[in-house]
């Protein structure tokens, strides 16, 4: 029996050895594990941990000539995990900047670094800040400011003076929600706000680094102004988004239609846009070069086209503002053209893994962003798919006439959309709590238009813009009209959006590992992922939404009615939070309050099977509820000696802890989660949140 077990174990290990060439594909996953470990810590580790990879690297170097035994593999794993962890520490150290702690009205001067233009307002990124004397503000590095007055006169590179209301970056909408303060931290943005006076331009920024940054922003701003002046308002925002990456001019109803139809990915400069731009330039240049027999015979036409396409992509990246998502897409597509230049396989999982490693080491915070997760999930799944069926589909297309080629194209688009949709669905569901039911149909209609009409028009628009020619915008706009029509049509169909709610991050990690296991391995061991996936899917039935959500201000709370609906205390207060809550709870909005919910001028009371939950609105209501309620949720201060209540959440608790989630069990126990309790003592969390009392539980 023991001998049989050893033989089975040896056969299992042999499968991994036979797939040795695919071990490298696990590198980004292991680096990502180290990054995830950093972000899950409740306290910030010492910067000394940045030297963590030194020891495994030294041992790895010493053992490099001793074969690839299990100890060598374990050491390599430790090295990669520690690299991810150290990359986070280094990145945090580089970007760390002061954060505003409370709302402030001040007069300031600063250099305009970026401008996002809309029809009625503009959003600016300001740096090199100086504040009015007497204002005790931290030395903020960057702020993001929205303005509705004379924003047309302000351009990147200028130094301006303005009076503004500044606030700390917004905290999570609910416990475990996307952390905007963390996002702002890694952009060195210490405050957000809005102007309350016109801008006064007082000079120009002469610095070289600032000049390069402002040059990119200035080109984007001028392209946006040009498009707003020459394109119809109904598609100008879409054109600006795909040319410069700025989505601020897109009408809200269009954004909703694009999200609900599953076409929102067309609005963000990503691998799809970079791939289309690079591919169009590559094939156009190659076609022009081969028209000359002499050039085709004596020059490496393919490599010349790859270099020109790469140069064009670099220009597109510069104009797009070099956001993390755009840089990530550029690295992925650039790896493809570099591979062509060195006569290597252009599209492979190894190239994608290499790009992922670079991005994770340079921008480790991108691991926890939806765009990184969804783009790499789609690319990994698609390349794996075409590794299997690509040769067969190409053979089918070449073996017939126009009809077969057209059919092969439609099959390719359908498979691409289906596989990409399935690969990104878990991440979309986790981050947004919804799934577009007709995404496949919408993408079948829109993606060919995007590739054959819109993006060629975009390239022509870039070429013609320096000469002031706007006719290519007509080509782009006509294609966008068709895309918007398909988005509006599919979004209006019955049950177009399925609000399924989010789920714990542990399940997302498990799904990711199962997907990687199935994609990376080629030996029969890959099929072990399927039964594990089946068990994981069954666990989703145990996922539970909060019974009550309370905003950090206390002005809004939501109650899960238990009848497939959620009741909001207000339809006006904190609409952004309400929308995010609806996604995470995955419920329809209830027009009537739940059973047992009664209100009077002093507040509201919810009677459940085990508890009386009070939501007082006045000080008299708080005092009354202290004598009768088991749980008190108050946006005003509550007295310390509430006699009956065993859980009190008042204004100060919400101020310190942020949004609250309550889970009520039939047995009478209560579980409380807070937004800041889950975040811990981290540099992106404002100071007032870092010292907290223990979470109250019954």
TrEMBL record:
Compartments, record wording: Cell membrane
Highest classification ranks of the organism: Bacteria, Pseudomonadati, Pseudomonadota, Alphaproteobacteria, Sneathiellales
Protein name from the UniProt record: DUF4131 domain-containing protein
Membrane topology: Multi-pass membrane protein
Record-linked Pfam families: Competence, DUF4131
Record-annotated membrane-spanning stretches: 21-41, 71-94, 263-285, 297-319, 347-364, 370-386, 406-429, 435-455, 462-487, 499-520, 527-543
Domain ComEC/Rec2-related protein: 243-523
InterPro entries registered for this protein in UniProt: ComEC_N, Competence_DNA_uptake, DUF4131
Highest taxon of the lineage: Bacteria
Keyword Chaperone annotated: no
Alphabetically ordered keywords of this record: Cell membrane, Membrane, Transmembrane, Transmembrane helix
Domain DUF4131 span(s) in chain numbering: 44-195
Cellular component aspect of the GO annotation: plasma membrane
Signal peptide: none
């Amino acid at each position: 029996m023991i001998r049989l077990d050893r033989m089975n174990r040896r056969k299992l290990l042999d499968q991994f050895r036979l797939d040795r060439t695919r071990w490298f594909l696990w590198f980004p996953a292991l680096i990502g594990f180290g990054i995830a470990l950093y972000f899950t810590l409740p306290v910030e580790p010492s910067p000394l941990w940045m030297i963590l990879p030194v020891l495994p690297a030294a041992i790895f170097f010493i053992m490099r000539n001793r074969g690839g035994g299990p100890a060598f593999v374990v050491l390599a794993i430790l090295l990669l995990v520690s690299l991810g962890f150290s990359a986070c520490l280094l990145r945090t150290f580089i970007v760390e900047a002061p954060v505003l702690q409370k709302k402030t009205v001040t007069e300031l001067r600063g250099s305009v670094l970026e401008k996002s233009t809309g029809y009625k307002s503009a959003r600016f990124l300001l740096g090199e800040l100086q504040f009015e004397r007497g204002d005790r503000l931290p030395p903020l590095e960057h702020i993001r400011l929205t303005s509705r007055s004379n924003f047309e006169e302000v351009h990147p590179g200028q130094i301006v003076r303005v009076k503004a209301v500044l606030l700390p970056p917004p905290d999570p909408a609910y416990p475990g929600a996307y952390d905007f303060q963390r996002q702002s931290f890694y952009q060195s943005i210490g405050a957000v706000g809005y102007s309350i006076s016109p801008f006064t331009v007082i000079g120009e920024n002469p610095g070289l680094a600032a000049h390069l940054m402002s040059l990119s922003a200035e080109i984007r701003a001028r392209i946006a102004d040009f498009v707003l002046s020459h394109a119809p308002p109904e598609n100008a925002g879409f054109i600006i988004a795909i040319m410069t990456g700025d989505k601020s001019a897109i009408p809200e109803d269009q954004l909703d239609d694009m999200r609900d139809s599953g076409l929102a990915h067309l609005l963000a400069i990503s691998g799809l846009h970079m791939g289309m731009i690079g591919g169009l330039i590559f094939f156009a240049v190659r076609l022009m070069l081969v028209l000359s027999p002499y050039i085709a015979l004596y020059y490496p036409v393919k490599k010349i086209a790859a270099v020109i396409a790469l140069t064009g992509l670099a220009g597109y990246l510069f104009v797009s503002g070099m956001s993390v998502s755009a840089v990530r897409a550029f690295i992925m597509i650039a790896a493809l053209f570099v591979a062509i230049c060195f006569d290597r396989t252009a599209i492979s999982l190894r190239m994608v893994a290499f790009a992922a490693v670079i991005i994770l080491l340079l921008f480790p915070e991108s691991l926890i962003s939806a765009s990184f997760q969804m783009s790499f999930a789609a690319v990994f799944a698609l390349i794996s798919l075409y590794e299997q069926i690509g040769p067969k589909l190409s053979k089918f297309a070449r073996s017939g006439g126009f009809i077969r080629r057209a059919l092969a194209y439609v099959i390719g688009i359908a498979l691409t959309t289906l596989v990409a949709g399935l690969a990104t669905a878990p991440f979309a569901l986790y981050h947004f709590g919804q799934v577009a039911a007709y995404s496949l149909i919408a993408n079948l209609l829109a993606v060919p238009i995007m590739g054959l009409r819109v993006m060629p028009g975009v390239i022509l628009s870039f070429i013609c813009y320096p000469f002031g020619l706007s006719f290519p915008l007509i080509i782009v706009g006509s294609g966008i009209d068709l895309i918007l029509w398909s988005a509006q049509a599919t979004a209006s169909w019955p049950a177009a959006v399925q609000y399924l709610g989010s789920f714990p991050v542990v399940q997302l990690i498990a799904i990711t590992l199962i997907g990687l296991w199935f994609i990376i391995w080629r030996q029969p061991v890959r099929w072990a992922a399927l039964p594990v996936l089946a068990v994981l899917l069954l666990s989703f039935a145990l996922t539970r939404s909060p019974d009550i959500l309370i905003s950090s201000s206390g002005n809004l709370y939501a109650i899960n009615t238990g009848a497939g609906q959620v009741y909001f205390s207000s339809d006006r207060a904190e609409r952004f939070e309400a929308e995010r809550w609806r996604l995470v709870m995955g419920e329809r909005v209830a027009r009537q309050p739940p059973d047992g919910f009664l209100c009077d001028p002093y507040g509201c009371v919810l009677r459940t099977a085990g508890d009386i939950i009070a939501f007082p609105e006045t000080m008299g209501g708080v005092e009354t509820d202290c004598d009768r309620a088991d749980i008190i949720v108050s946006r005003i201060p509550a007295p310390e000696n509430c006699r009956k209540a065993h859980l009190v959440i008042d204004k100060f608790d919400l101020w310190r802890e942020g949004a609250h989630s309550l889970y009520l069990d039939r047995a009478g126990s209560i579980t409380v989660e807070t937004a800041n309790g889950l975040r811990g003592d981290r540099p992106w969390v404002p100071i007032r949140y870092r010292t907290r009392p223990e979470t109250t539980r019954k």
